[in-house]
Design brief:
Elements (H helix, E strand, L loop, with lengths): L2 E8 L3 H8 L3 H7 L3 E6 L11 E6 L4 E10 L3 E8 L4 E12 L13 E11 L5 H28 L1 H12 L6 E2 L5 E2 L10
Antiparallel strand pairs: 1-7, 2-3, 3-4, 4-5, 5-6, 6-7, 8-9
Helix pairs in contact: 1-4, 2-4
């Protein structure tokens, strides 16, 4: 399975870096060059394990993903549930850790190493060897652009303030509906774009 990965050091603490990575709506569009729109599905308003999202790429591709892990402030992972015909499988995730030599106890001196990784396989099987080489190059380019955008978001006071508000809001805690998926909290409006 081909894997593409990119990392960056951002000058915010891991909790803030994690929160920026999970922004939605207009705040997400401020920093993420990959997406045209992204929204939660099935009535969910906050990310949590089992929650599904619909993402539209700027080129028009559509993908439904599901959170397979959600562990603030250290990592988050997703897998493709539905997507472009040429992907047999796709999964991705973020990892966050204090950057060496920085003081996490003081937010003005904290820094975080953020790593974004995708793993994927292509179909049909006879074309996979070539498609996966091309896909590695294309996804590698996209993940570098996204992580560069993420770094700009972590330096953008509007994005950072919104991410911190979003992360500390009591309505950001997942509420489980009868299906076990995260469901809207009373009075919440749908998140995303």
């Amino acid at each position: 399975m081909p894997v593409v990965e990119s990392s960056v050091i951002v000058l915010v603490d891991p909790a803030t870096a994690f929160a920026v990575s999970q922004t939605t709506g207009e705040v997400r569009l401020r920093w993420d060059p990959f997406i045209r729109s992204q929204r939660f599905l099935d009535g969910a308003v906050v990310p949590a394990k089992g929650v599904r999202t619909l993402t539209r790429h700027r080129a028009g591709l559509r993908m439904v993903s599901e959170y397979v892990s959600y562990n603030p402030p250290t990592n988050v992972g997703m897998k493709m549930v539905e997507g472009p015909w040429f992907f047999a499988s796709m999964a991705g995730g973020w990892r966050f850790a204090p950057a060496p030599g920085r003081d996490v106890g003081h937010p003005d001196r904290a820094a975080t190493r953020a790593v974004w990784r995708y793993g994927f396989t292509c179909r049909p099987a006879w074309l996979a060897p070539v498609a996966e080489r091309v896909g590695s190059w294309l996804l590698g380019r996209d993940v570098r652009r996204r992580i560069d955008g993420f770094a700009r978001g972590c330096a953008d006071p509007v994005v950072v303030a919104a991410a911190r508000r979003q992360a500390s809001s009591p309505s950001r805690q997942p509420h489980r509906g009868p299906s076990g998926r995260a469901a809207p909290a009373p009075g919440d409006a749908p998140a995303g774009t």
